[in-house]
Amino acid sequence: MANVVESATLKHPDDGTPALEDCTDKFNKVLAALLNRNFTINNDVYLEMIVSHLGEHRNLLKSAEMFVFLDDALGQWESETLPSGDVAAFTLQVLAMIVGDEWSFARVQSKKLLDRFQDCVGRFQHPSVKLGHVLVLKAVSRHAMGLAWIKSSGSWRICLDYYNGQLQTIFITKEASLFIYEVLERFGMVGDYELVKEIVRNILSPLLDVVWKSPDQEHAVLVDDEKSQRIVTSMLNLMCTLFRKLLVSNKRSRAAYHILITFRFERNLWCYADAIQDHSVLTKVWETHILANCTRLGCMDIPAEDNVVEDLKFEKYTINFLNYVNFSLRRGNIPNVMLMAQMHHHAWNLMADRAPEEVVLKNQNIKFGDQILLLQLFPVVYEIKSLTSKDPPDYIEKFCMRLYDISCEFTVRLMYACRDVFVAYNTVVAEMAIKSIQGIVSMNTLPRPRAIIAFQAFVYVLKEFLPDMCYLENQCDFSKTDLILSKPNLLAAIINALHSLIQNYKFNWKECIESTTLVNFMLNLLGNPNLPPRHVVLALKLTQLSIEHFLAPNLALLMDNIEGSGLSFVGRIIYQRLHDSNWEVRDSALELLASIVEISEIKFPSFQKHVLDCDIIPVVEAAAKNDSEPYVRASALRCLTLMVKIRLLWEHSLVKLNLMNHLITVFDNESEGVVRREAVNTIREIYSNHKIQAQCLDAVFSVLAFSAANDLYWEVKLNALVFWKVVMCRQFQHQGMIDGTFPAVTFSKEHKKIITLTNKEILLRLRKVLNELSLRGCLGVLLACLGDDCDLEVVRQTVEIIRRLMCYLNKYNYMEECVNRRVEPASDDRSAFVAVIDTNYSEHKRPSDHQLKSAQRNDADYSSGNVPCLINSDEIIDSIVNLDDVNLLSITYKHNMSVSSSGPEPTATTMTPAGGGCHCEASKHHNDLFRKYAEVTPEDFLKQVAATDFDELIAGRESWLRKTESFGSLLDDVLFSYYAAEVNEADCY
Prior knowledge:
This protein is mainly α and 989 residues long. The protein has 53 helices and six strands.
């Protein structure tokens, strides 16, 4: 056991970061290694990590060695043989960090280093080098001297070439577009409007120079020319980024004025739109148009001398949008209409509070945002109409009338035009509906009333996939199976959309009465055996979410059963799906069951009887033991953990199962940490809520001690520590502590009477707690976990438990009174020598191994009703005191009447009341695992705790863990690979 105590005293180096001198020396060696052309970086991430660490070691960037490195690197750049692209990109990234400071920029430019690097960049074809150059330009643009250099050198032109070039990557386009936006704003802030105008002119040159015109014929247009489309599309992407940044910035910009007014961006874009037919390019055109229109609403910095131009009126904005829609409809492109509607919502959210009021017709309270939503919903509504019979139901008619009430004449005309396009082009409306649904769901910022309208529309589509008669009552109705199989993507999109809307908006049944039908709809859908596994999983998840959100608490209190409601079928559905061949289906069914069990504990108790009636629990137990998929086994154990807390489920089903034996076996045979993690939780709940037999308790303590200290999965350790925390709290509660405090009086189980808790009595009870925790291995486990070298969270949890224990002890000055003074109990106080009730070891004398193995545990661990005993009056009183069921009195009385005084002593099995404890076979294999931890005495534990600075311990572990990712360690890795490469080269000779 000395190893357990010593492990807690191990300390890692206090300083997780090497001294600055060490880092400086190592960093200079790395710089020298990078200048070696033969050196190859084993891991290209090393250089990126060095750059990130340099942000915390900025002094290294100003060192003389760094500028020597730049001079030498520049010499290689200007030579005939270029350095590797990775080293060149690293050099530029370091240079970007240096020139961001104005004084350092001046130092660099004193030798014209920046100009010389920029002249050499064009020789590299590596994208990372281009990105590094953009980062240098971004850093330089942050101060006045840098802006002057960018203007004089024309560096912004190079950045534009990168954005439009063939070697562009997503990182280059992102950083280049941000650089262009920043220089436009900064030059505008310093009043250099001519340069802003020049930059804007270069950006818009593809439109202004009409690159899509044929060079051979004067009036000919290159329709869908690949080269011109690539050039214009790149420009449109940049404009979209600029417009978004302008909308978010909440500032007026002179660049916006030049783009939209000086160079008449929208008019030129219309010319381009009229010249092309490619719908994908048109999508980008309309996106740019909408963002440009929103920018004109209030983002332009209009010069004082311009008395004609003004911000765009909202009425004009709506007309422009309708023109975009009409243009797309004339081209027969409904998907573009859907994307434009989605783009409008996005741009409107970017403006936030600066967005104008959306009222179109004030006297009728018609809002523009509602018209956009109606356009998006039209394919969905059209699909509802096509799925319903010739005469639609009343609820469909009412819903359509509600949509008509919030629409205006122009919107109705557009929807009729959409209908005509569907008919003329023979469009697959279901695909349009899917895109519409996905677009609506992707907008998480829809106003709540509009989200409710979308939710209702989706529910009505879902209704059409259900048979006319309830499938659960009439299992011969397969009328909608063909529809499910013919339009599976539409059904999946609807279920996903409903799930997302419920999660995002938390609807209640008062806002949307359709929400109350979802549970019935899903159960009806799940009853169809032909439903594909993918849809079964989605439906189970939506059923779970609907039950969690749409069961009204007042309804739950008024109903004592669920018979006669749709919920009466949920048990049968879960039972069926637990036997599905697809493991994702089984796992989702268990998640649904876990949610129902959790709700049944307090909110909806009638589910408890339903779970019992459906005989689901044995199936869950079988899944926990035998399922081939570890995630399913873990989910089954989670269900059992929740069920254990419910008395009805325990007494009528769980107590009959051989749960504890399986849970203990899990720690021997289970290789998956997620399963062991849940097994620990299940054991903890059984221990917390029920009685564990004596022959099983040693095995429980053993496997939980071993798991807390030695398991390879950190979450198993944490859960095991929570178990030991429960053990500790139970010991304190057993000794009379309530909410962390001993009351003035308590009921003594030893004396069968109420006693006064004097200071001496409290100290003796605290001593009993420590002795019990010591015997069961709890104190040894805590010390072992305190020395955990790998998992910081385990150490933190252990420290939290120890601090809580010491808080209880210090509250009553236990350390001073009982440890320092060695207070002895009075000789006539017999109870003081009984360290723990029903145990036979001495207060101040450690028990022998034989005594330890034969010691019985106190009533905090198990009931005396589960222990072999003589039937006498004291035992009857003990049974009543220790167990919370009054019926045990009658059970004990009947047993006493049926057993003669001369008969054999009853066994533990015959004495166990029905549902009174957890049955478990004795497991000698595990019984001794916790013994080594039990060797830690209270004195050893308290001495070790008193000598430990927990804050320093945690800080040391954090520093030690950081050291594995520290700057010095990273430099060591780079140098190791460098020297290893040199050795290998020498070996070749």
